[in-house]
């Protein structure tokens, strides 16, 4: 988790350097909040139609019945706004990467299908394209919906049971599909 702290420091360094930009927005993804994943994004205006969104997500929890979905992820995204930044339609290109420790969980879309019987620890990285729309609610508040599709490569160690199992094997998984889903509440700093 030291690399997560280092990544967060780098993200906040970029935020600090860029505060002189014309617009900065701070946001939280309500979908991640619903899964008990702490998240924070900062979006920085670069030009009249380009922004850079820097997102960090972290879930440190183990749940009852030995369910575990610990992970962290960083997801920077360059955005091109079709009209003006922070308003309306945008297209994005994002990178993503992080680490995970998952066991005794059932995930949709066939992602790590045997996590109900095994525990997986590893890291992943990927790339994707996104589309989104932002609605202005007031002078400083907005709501945003976005969806991204792309590719993820995951590397893992597989263990016998969710909690205490013996190491079984090392493996890799390729995934092509949704790489981002967000409904975000945004506060714009002017």
Number of strands: 8
Euclidean distance between termini CA atoms: 33 Å
Largest sheet: 8 strands, antiparallel, barrel
Rounded to the nearest angstrom, the radius of gyration is 18 Å
Q: Which descriptor suits the 3D outline?
A: elongated
What is the H-and-E element order?
HEHEEEEEEE
**What portion of residues belong to β-strands?**
over 45%
Mean pLDDT rating: 86
Characterization of this structure:
The protein is mainly beta and 190 residues long. It has one domain. The chain is 11% helix and 60% strand. Strands 1-2-3-4-5-6-7-8 form an eight-stranded antiparallel beta barrel. Strand 3 and strand 4 form a beta hairpin. It is elongated, with a radius of gyration of 18 Å. 30% of the residues are buried. About 4% of the residues have low confidence. It comes from Bacteroides intestinalis.
List the helices and strands and how they pair.
Elements: H1 2-17, E1 24-29, H2 30-34, E2 38-45, E3 50-59, E4 68-81, E5 88-103, E6 119-136, E7 141-159, E8 167-189
Antiparallel strand pairs: 1-2, 1-8, 2-3, 3-4, 4-5, 5-6, 6-7, 7-8
Q: What's this entry about, in short?
A:
This protein is mostly beta strands. It has helices at 2-17, 30-34; strands spanning 24-29, 38-45, 50-59, 68-81, 88-103, 119-136, 141-159, 167-189. It contains 2 helices and 8 strands.
């Amino acid at each position: 988790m030291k690399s997560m702290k280092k990544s967060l420091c780098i993200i906040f360094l970029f935020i600090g350097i860029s505060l002189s930009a014309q617009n900065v927005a701070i946001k939280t993804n309500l979908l991640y909040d619903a899964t008990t994943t702490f998240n924070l994004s900062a979006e920085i205006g670069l030009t009249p139609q380009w922004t850079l969104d820097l997102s960090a997500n972290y879930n440190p929890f183990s749940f009852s019945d030995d369910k575990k979905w610990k992970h962290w992820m960083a997801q920077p995204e360059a955005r091109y706004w079709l009209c003006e930044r922070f308003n309306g339609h945008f297209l994005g290109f994002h990178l993503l990467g992080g680490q995970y420790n998952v066991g005794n969980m059932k995930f949709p879309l066939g992602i790590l299908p045997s996590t109900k019987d095994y525990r997986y620890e590893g890291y992943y990285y990927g790339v994707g394209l996104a589309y989104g729309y932002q609605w202005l609610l007031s002078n400083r508040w907005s709501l945003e919906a976005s969806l991204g599709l792309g590719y993820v490569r995951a590397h893992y160690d597989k263990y016998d049971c969710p909690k205490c199992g013996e190491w079984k094997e090392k493996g890799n998984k390729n995934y092509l599909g949704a790489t981002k889903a967000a409904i975000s509440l945004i506060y714009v700093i002017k």
